[in-house]
Write a structure and sequence with these properties.
Layout (H helix, E strand, L loop, with lengths): L8 H10 L4 H12 L14 H10 L8 H17 L11 H8 L11
Helix pairs in contact: 1-4, 2-3, 3-4
């Protein structure tokens, strides 16, 4: 896909607000979630496809994002907003809910990024 010259600033800002885990935290989490009792995925293949894509986006400048990156960013923002209050204040919830959000870079126990 061709590189876009820009991604909407509002989307960029909101994505970085809802994705409140650092790239290191997300990468570590994806590896932990993918580790099994008998085996472990390769570090660069650990986690969900969306989680891996979020990790890639966190390592890019806004000017280097593709249309596919923008699609994933919108998907992540919509998912977090659908599952959380708008203020994104730290919230305890069921463990599986928290872990599901963490696979896309949002830890409900942390404040907004």
């Amino acid at each position: 896909m061709a590189t876009r010259s820009h991604v909407d600033e509002a989307l960029w800002d909101e994505f970085h607000r809802v994705v409140n885990m650092t790239s290191r935290e997300l990468g570590d989490w994806l590896r932990v979630r993918s580790a099994g009792t008998e085996s472990e995925e390769l570090p660069d293949q650990a986690g969900t496809k969306t989680g891996q894509h979020v990790l890639e986006i966190l390592g890019k400048r806004r000017t280097d994002l593709t249309e596919d990156d923008e699609r994933v960013m919108r998907k992540v923002v919509e998912k977090v907003h659908a599952e959380r209050r708008d203020d994104l204040e730290p919230t305890a919830g069921q463990e599986n809910w928290r872990h599901r959000l963490m696979t896309i870079g949002h830890d409900p126990l942390k404040g907004a990024g």
